[in-house]
Amino acid sequence: MGQKENREARRPLTAAVFKDRAVTAAHTSKGDNMVLRRNLLSSIVALALTGLVGSPALANDFPSKPLRIIVSAPAGGSSDTLSRGLAELLSRQLGKPVVVDNKPGAGGIIGIQELLKSPRDGHTMLVTVNGVLSEIPHAMKLPLDPMREVYPLAEVARTGLVLVAAPQLPVNSLAEAIAHVKNNPGKTSYASYSAGTSAHTLGLELNKLAGLDMLHVPFPGEAPALTQVMGGQIPFSFNGPAAALPLIKTGKLKALATTSPKRMRTLPDVPTFTELGYPSLNETVWIGAFITPDVPVAVRNQLFDAVQAALQDASMKQRILASGMDLPHATRPEELYKSLQQASTKHAATLQQVGFKLE
């Protein structure tokens, strides 16, 4: 009996083994049945933990059809450009076509809704910014909870935000900008690409730390916000480098400071807020690949490995750097999710402190 039990314990845990054990238990003596029932219970628990029970696609069958990357941004932007590079490399690795499908709108929620309509088998991913999970739910009323419905797979690229000033403004540094605001009490404003996002809360934090009274003016996106700053109607704005960098290079905007942990490779002469004495103004924005949390764990791991391999490709690294962003961290999905939860909690607290109300 001991040898038989040892052979049974060594059998690979598959659905077939699960079935065999159940059948055997039904035709066994009462004493042996207790042992087999324990084995059966262990099998159920192990299968559940590995994501095999009810799994529509096992890792050795994946991928079984073309893959799809949903991009929650319009064509031509950083998320779109990076997604197309990723799709090309994943197609080579996985041996299946990978289609990029742009679904912009509603702060990234339309892209999430499209993901949720798709089969939960790992053949569909979403590429979007981390703020769709950690910021947007606190900025607007939503038909779903992104933190519950979506799960991070991998970082694709990361960066900080840039505080820019109107070219007509007589300031060329953060210290001069702070002095200008103090010399014009109640007369200075700053733009953001959406109320309730980091572009909004960073200005609130700067107000508190430097004793300023800048008025926040929200816009539906970076383009209209930057247009107002370039024209001098609004003096300041926090923006991502992808949108701001070309305008900074041509003198249409002045870059005063960045929220990156270290100086941006694309703006080496612009100091960080940490360097300038404001270490809490340290904000990292990242573009990531996301899936639903019920994708089988084995498939999730295979996708993670494939994405990481693609991100190590020289052509993909060049795409990331050309977009003005930095190379990503190879952080595991579990750690990414924890960081999103922490960012969400911090963001909610900041908005609560200023009495921000959902529209």
Give a structural overview:
The protein is α/β, with parallel strands linked by helices and 359 residues long. The protein has helices at residues 2-10, 15-26, 30-49, 78-94, 109-117, 131-134, 136-139, 146-149, 174-183, 198-210, 222-230, 241-249, 297-311, 314-322, 333-353, and strands at residues 67-71, 98-102, 124-129, 151-160, 162-165, 189-192, 215-218, 236-239, 254-258, 284-291. The longest helix has 21 residues, at 333-353. Mean pLDDT is 84; it is low at 1-31, 34-38 and 40-57.
Task: Describe the structure concisely.
The chain is of the alpha/beta class and 359 residues long.
Question: Key terms for this structure?
Answer:
five-stranded mixed beta sheet, 46% helix, globular, disordered N terminus, alpha/beta, 15 helices, 359 residues, single chain
The share of residues in helices is: 40-55%
- Order of strands in the sheet with most strands: 2-1-3-10-4
Find the count of extended strands (DSSP E, 2+ residues).
10
Coarse shape: globular
What's the Cα radius of gyration? 25 Å
The proportion of strand residues reads 15-25%
Structural class based on helices, strands and sheet pairing: alpha/beta
Which ranges are low-confidence, i.e. pLDDT below 50, for 5 or more consecutive residues?
A: 1-31, 34-38, 40-57
Main sheet summary: 5 strands, mixed
Measured between the Cα atoms of the first and last residue, the distance is 69 Å
Number of helices: 15
N-to-C SSE string, H for helix and E for strand:
HHHEHEHEHHHEEHEHEHEHEEHHH
Averaged pLDDT, please?
84
